[in-house]
């Protein structure tokens, strides 16, 4: 299965596989994409990565759209990593809960963080068994950082290192993703109209050069393609579950951590960008200071970037910070 990026756009030096793996719920399968160098034969915990997305866009949308000729997954695979990317249920190529076929107001918010943690657990178990390794590295973005952090806090023995990009943590300002009002099962995201909110986080003088020409359109089309049902509407939309927003209201915006960061006992990297309005610098600092039992921790701040830094002109700074962190041996 390859729904999002035509196969001819992949480098001939990379092997690309897509899996549908079972979740812990009947009728729900999870999409898992894998990329690795064709010459790579041996598997190891240190060189295996599992990535998990945020509250709106799938892992394929965030990590595997080849902007400027390469995606984040391509970048890591070319450096010798065995890279997997998970779509939590309701996202991307994974099964959408049946409630998403009914009007949103007919059901409460779908896919709370605890459900996503269970899906992540299913993916970790699948990869460890398939590759015959005891641990792997986790990379999470935004809400995916909460999911990865919560999983790691209870499963340190299965994680080598943890890298988090703009991870959701306690909020000191209103969450831009939460527009207020009653929450149904899911929301409809007009992706092509997202550019304005994205650029609004940057100073006006920097907006014209933040996203290189053509990148937004390519990314938006790839994101919309993950939800064919939403594409039948005008304007075209992509459905996203509301469970993460309900958790923002119940936990992060209410000053209640969803998990105890001091339970994480593996090396941790935090990557943040200076114009991020969704996860502020002070929120990142609070998480950094809460990682009291990590063997070592690092915080990398990327200048001239927003919450979507992985898709912007300075994305290679984030890519390189993460690959360096995963590659180094600090013993």
TrEMBL record:
Lineage, top-rank taxon, reads Bacteria
> What is the name listed in the Swiss-Prot or TrEMBL entry for this protein?
Alpha/beta hydrolase
Q: Name one GO cellular component term.
A: membrane
State the Pfam families in the record. Abhydrolase_1
List the GO molecular function terms. Answer: hydrolase activity
| Keyword vocabulary terms for this entry | Hydrolase
> Quick check: keyword Glycosyltransferase in the entry?
no
In which organism is this protein found?
A: Bradyrhizobium guangdongense
Query: Is Cell membrane among the key words of this record?
Result: no
Gene3D superfamilies assigned to the protein according to its UniProt record, in alphabetical order = alpha/beta hydrolase
Give residue ranges for domain AB hydrolase-1: 48-312
């Amino acid at each position: 299965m390859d729904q999002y990026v035509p196969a001819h756009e992949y480098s001939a030096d990379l092997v690309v596989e897509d899996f549908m793996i079972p979740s812990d719920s009947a009728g729900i399968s999870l999409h898992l994409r894998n990329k690795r160098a064709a010459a790579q034969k041996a598997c190891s915990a240190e060189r295996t990565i599992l990535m998990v997305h945020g509250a709106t866009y799938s892992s394929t949308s965030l990590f595997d759209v080849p902007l400027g000729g390469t995606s984040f997954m391509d970048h890591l695979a070319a450096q010798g990593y065995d890279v997997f990317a998970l779509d939590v249920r309701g996202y991307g190529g994974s099964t959408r809960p049946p409630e998403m076929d009914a009007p949103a107001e007919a059901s409460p918010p779908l896919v709370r963080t605890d459900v996503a943690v269970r899906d992540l657990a299913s993916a970790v178990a699948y990869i460890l068994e398939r590759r015959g390794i005891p641990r792997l590295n986790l990379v999470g973005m935004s809400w995916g950082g909460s999911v990865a952090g919560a999983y790691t806090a209870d499963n340190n023995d299965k994680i080598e290192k943890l890298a988090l990009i703009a991870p959701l943590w306690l909020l000191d300002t209103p969450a831009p993703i939460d527009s207020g009002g009653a929450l149904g099962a899911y929301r409809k995201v007009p992706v092509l109209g997202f550019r304005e909110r994205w650029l609004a986080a940057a100073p006006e003088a920097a907006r014209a050069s933040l996203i290189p020409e053509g990148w937004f359109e390519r990314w938006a089309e790839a994101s919309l393609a993950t939800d064919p049902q939403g594409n039948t509407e005008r304007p075209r939309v992509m459905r996203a579950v509301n469970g993460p927003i309900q958790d923002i209201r119940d936990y992060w915006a209410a000053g209640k951590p969803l998990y105890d960061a001091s339970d994480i006992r593996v090396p941790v990297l935090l990557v943040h960008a200076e114009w991020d309005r969704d996860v502020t610098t002070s929120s990142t600092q609070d998480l950094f200071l809460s990682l009291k039992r990590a063997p070592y921790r690092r915080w990398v701040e990327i200048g001239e970037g927003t919450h979507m830094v992985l898709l912007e002109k300075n994305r290679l700074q984030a890519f390189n910070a993460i690959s360096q962190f995963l590659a180094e041996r600090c013993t």
